[in-house]
């Protein structure tokens, strides 16, 4: 099950998420067993669904490989395709796109029966408002974010 939750106050992204006019979402799921942030990042960015996004990004001039995913997941890279690492520690990974206006956040924390997987997104406002295109894409984004988290959860469960 995928739950929509508030972005935790301890998130590295929390400061930017508090900006007036910002769009923030956060989803949570639990996977059995103990998983680190590297395992989770590898599962999410290595998913079949994300492979389609990687193909689109490659056409736009931001190619990436499976090796790039592993390098990002296990702290051997500070960037991946269009994203750069904004912050990272033993339980979270925060990425920003090339223009610094859209961000993704992944985190893990212990949970009863396994590991809680957190996945959040942030769109910063321009002139106090989230861009109109972001509003148009939000329904697709929320379904996509949930589906990515579900695939990562499944990969860590199998």
List the helices and strands and how they pair.
Elements: E1 3-4, H1 14-17, E2 23-32, H2 37-45, H3 48-59, H4 66-73, E3 79-80, E4 83-89, E5 92-97, E6 102-111, E7 114-123, H5 132-157
Antiparallel strand pairs: 1-2, 2-7, 3-4, 4-5, 5-6, 6-7
Helix pairs in contact: 2-4, 2-5
How does this structure look, described?
With 158 residues, the chain is of the alpha+beta class. It has 5 helices and 7 strands. Strands 1-2-7-6-5-4-3 form a 7-stranded antiparallel beta sheet, covered by helices on one side. The longest helix has 26 residues, at 132-157.
Number of helix segments?
A: 5
- What is the average of the pLDDT values? 95
Structural class, from secondary structure content?
A: alpha+beta
**Assembly state (oligomeric):** single chain
Q: What is the C-alpha radius of gyration, as a whole number of Å?
A: 15 Å
Please outline the major beta sheet.
7 strands, antiparallel
* N-end to C-end Cα span: 16 Å
What is the chain-wise order of helices and strands? Answer: EHEHHHEEEEEH
Low-confidence stretches: none
Global geometry? globular
The total beta strand count reads 7
Strand adjacency order, main sheet:
1-2-7-6-5-4-3
Tell me the strand percentage band.
25-35%
Assign a percent range to the helix content.
25-40%
């Amino acid at each position: 099950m995928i739950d929509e939750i508030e972005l935790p106050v301890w998130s590295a992204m929390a400061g930017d998420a508090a900006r007036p006019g910002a769009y923030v979402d956060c989803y949570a799921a639990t996977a059995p067993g103990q998983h680190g942030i590297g395992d989770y990042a590898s599962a999410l960015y290595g998913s079949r669904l994300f492979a389609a996004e990687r193909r689109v990004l490659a056409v736009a001039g931001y190619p990436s490989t499976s090796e790039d995913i592993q390098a990002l997941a296990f702290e051997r890279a500070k960037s991946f395709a269009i994203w750069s690492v904004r912050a990272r520690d033993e339980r979270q990974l925060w990425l920003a796109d090339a223009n610094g206006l859209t961000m993704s956040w992944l985190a893990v924390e212990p949970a009863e029966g396994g590991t809680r997987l957190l996945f959040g997104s942030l769109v910063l406002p321009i002139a106090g408002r989230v861009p109109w295109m972001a509003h148009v894409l939000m329904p697709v984004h929320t379904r996509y974010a949930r589906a990515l988290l579900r695939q990562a959860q499944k990969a860590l469960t199998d």
